Predict the 3D structure of the following.
Amino acid sequence: PESPLSSAEESVNGLAGDPLASQSSSLKPPSEDPSGGESQPGTPLPLPGHSGLSIQEMVAMSPELDTYAITKKVKEVLTDNNLGQRLFGETILGLTQGSVSDLLARPKPWHKLSLKGREPFVRMQLWLQDPHSVEKLMDMKRLEKKAYMKRRLSSLSDGHSVDGGLVGSEYMQGSQSPGQQQLKKPRVVLGPEEKEALKKAYQQKPYPSPKTIEELASQLNLKTSTVINWFHNYRSRIRRELFIEEIQAAGGVGPGSEAGSPSLRGSKSGEGDSCDGTESEGTVETRQSLGIGLEDHRGACKDHDMEAESEAGGSNNSPAQLDCTATGLAGPGSSGGQGGLGLFSLTEASSSSSASSTNIPASGPARNPRDNNLRKKKAANLNNIIHRLEKAASKEDPSDLIHPLTRT
DNA sequence: TCCCAGTCAATAAT
DNA sequence: ATTATTGACTGGGA
């Protein structure tokens, strides 16, 4: 079992290629902002002059882009020219440094992005295509530095504050209301043990009921909103990790290990602690199987009882309790054939008979510590999916759901 | 109302 | 200095 399929992929890196080059020509066939105005809270950045298209229009028309290749290239260009994420983000993408870092490090595959989510990638692509992209940014950098120096200098000599209205967008104005400096919101920082506890809870129940949340909150001495937020964030971040691993797996998994693909690269797989880290007692080991190839795509899975599924108690270890039939079954947006590179496209599941190892054979000597992690994440994701399916179906297995009290 | 995708922005880590 | 991480917020859906 192993699909070499490799071969080809050669030109994966479309960098220069530029898929998006559609440029003008037949732009905007569809509607176009009828009424003037269009308000559009967004539309920041001047956007490259290009035809008068708004980014959204471009996004809408954009063909499928290889987000991974794009971010890789962007990272390369930025580092090669000593340009920082902050500058790049603020002037090119209209995003903050943290967001840029996140995007560059963990780009989601195009087909999983919403229209809004695609925007930054279209901008990056556009930027990469601009022959003067780098020098323009360098100019910005110089300007900023100059302004900074000036400010500094004048404040030193004058002992004054100079407000340069440049770059900044709106700095929060200091409403230093006397006596009320505490409006600063401390920024909750969860301790390691709290995170541990939350992760534990998550494994048992990714979607805790309000009651459970309350309990957790009081037990850990946290605000319920914090617990809620934590679950939201954790769920979506785990989901994202999966996307990444999915991509990597799809890319160069093969006997040859490594990649041949000039553009697919390893990365970092955060594992480190993402999920377990310390996992005292429990130890996840045996959680094998769960051989889902690429679930997603709304894979339909039928499981038996997810509730008990996470170890914790450390006793059960039923092998493959969830056999998933993740057939290609395209979801709503199946989108038919879109032409062009299907880099990420649906790689139909090859699940064939289920079971079987998912990917990364790891030929050689053991050494695949992160495997558990992957499995765990997949299991978690499965739970998510299951949860939604059940909810949607709202039929059986009312394990503990919140009853629809209302309902007569 | 509950979820999620995207982000922000404070602060950790390099 | 930069880049990475992450709790909280916002807006859109159903």
